[in-house]
UniProtKB/TrEMBL annotation:
Its cofactor is L-ascorbate. Residues 18-38 have a biased composition (Low complexity). PROSITE patterns: FE2OG_OXY (PS51471). Residues 1-17 form the signal peptide. It comes from Tetraparma gracilis. Residues 18-44 are annotated as: Disordered. Keywords: Dioxygenase, Iron, Metal-binding, Oxidoreductase, Signal. This is Fe2OG dioxygenase domain-containing protein. Coiled coil: none annotated. It holds the Pfam family 2OG-FeII_Oxy_3. Residues 156-269 form the Fe2OG dioxygenase domain. It comes from the Eukaryota. InterPro entries: OGFOD3, Oxoglu/Fe-dep_dioxygenase_dom, Pro_4_hyd_alph, Pro_4_hyd_alph_FE2OG_OXY.
């Protein structure tokens, strides 16, 4: 009887934790003019009603993914890095796109599916990755009150590993991962962001806090200055989702020790930017990240 009781309360907890309309915490912010539905909108995207946010904000879901699923997703990133680079790969930031096969670290681009004769991932691993994308997409849609079918999965998406090493220095702008930014400034069709943490701050790594920031004037060189608005501690299994416009500038702090992993997805309202979740172990070259200039640091 006790066991039945325990089991049923565990089930209740589970269903509460995964209810896409019941975030652990939630905040609403006025939307910036980045969306076609906002006053003062000056962009060129057509309005997609039922998708573009009319109410912006942030939603956090703890225990969104189980410890077992988190471990598998982390191991997939490791396997991809090992296949592309051998061993543990490089310190600093490494991004791994399981879907297109591309990865990037401070040595540049590589593809984990290049020249393979055997499958790198098992069908179960791909299925977990696919169902995680779909669950996050569905949760983002439900929590922001979108119509069925929205938002739309888009590319690129990746797992980011930030590995501390005391002697490591960024080799190019790509490696400077701690800059304040707005997702929609970098990629105009990103309307919603979803981050699923795969490691826990102060257990797996130190530093690496996620922060929502606010613009706070400019410095003597005319560069934007920011102040902290809300800090979020990464925790394995925690999903952080937010609207991708200027209402949500954010940054990651430098990792001071250990290794930090996060799975990052972006979603769009633009059907033109719909991207299939191939997850077929093939190289998808059309989504190769664009080469960019590497300014001196
Ligand atoms: C993003 O773009 C807007 C509009 O151009 C600009 O005002 C804002 O400062 C930019 N934000 C960041 C963090 O670069």
């Amino acid at each position: 009887m006790y066991r039945a009781l325990l089991l049923s309360s565990a089930l209740v907890l589970l269903s509460v934790a995964s209810d896409p309309t019941s975030p652990t915490s939630s905040s609403t912010i006025d939307c910036s003019s980045d969306y076609p539905s906002s006053k003062g909108y000056s962009g060129s995207e057509p309005i997609v009603s039922g998708c573009h946010p009319t109410s912006c904000g942030r939603r956090i879901f703890d225990d969104f993914a189980s410890p077992g699923d988190v471990a598998v997703l982390r191991a997939m990133a490791e396997k991809g890095i090992g296949a592309a680079r051998g061993g543990e790969g490089r310190p600093g930031p490494t991004i791994v796109d399981i879907n297109s096969g591309y990865m990037r670290d401070d040595e540049g681009l590589a593809n984990m599916y290049e020249g393979r004769t055997e499958a790198l991932f098992t069908p179960d691993e791909y299925e977990l990755y696919r169902s995680t994308i779909e669950r996050i997409r569905h949760t983002v849609g439900a929590t922001f009150g979108l119509e069925e079918g929205y938002p739309i999965f888009t590319a690129p998406t990746f797992i980011t590993r930030l590995r501390h090493h005391e002697d490591w220095q960024p080799q190019s702008m790509h490696d400077v991962y701690w800059m304040e930014h707005v997702d929609k400034n970098n990629t105009a069709h990103y309307d919603y962001s979803g981050l699923l943490y795969l490691t826990t701050q102060d257990v797996d790594f130190t530093g690496g806090m996620f922060e929502f920031v606010e613009e706070d004037g400019v410095d003597a060189d005319g560069d934007l200055v920011f102040k902290l608005e809300e800090a979020l501690s990464p925790k394995a299994g925690r999903l952080v989702s937010f609207t991708g416009g200027n209402e949500n500038p954010h940054k990651v702090n430098i990792v001071r020790g250990g290794t930090r992993y996060v799975l990052s997805f972006w979603f769009t309202c633009s059907s033109e930017h719909a991207f299939p979740a191939f997850l077929d172990g093939e190289i998808h070259k059309q989504f190769q990240p664009e080469p960019q200039p590497d300014p001196e640091l």
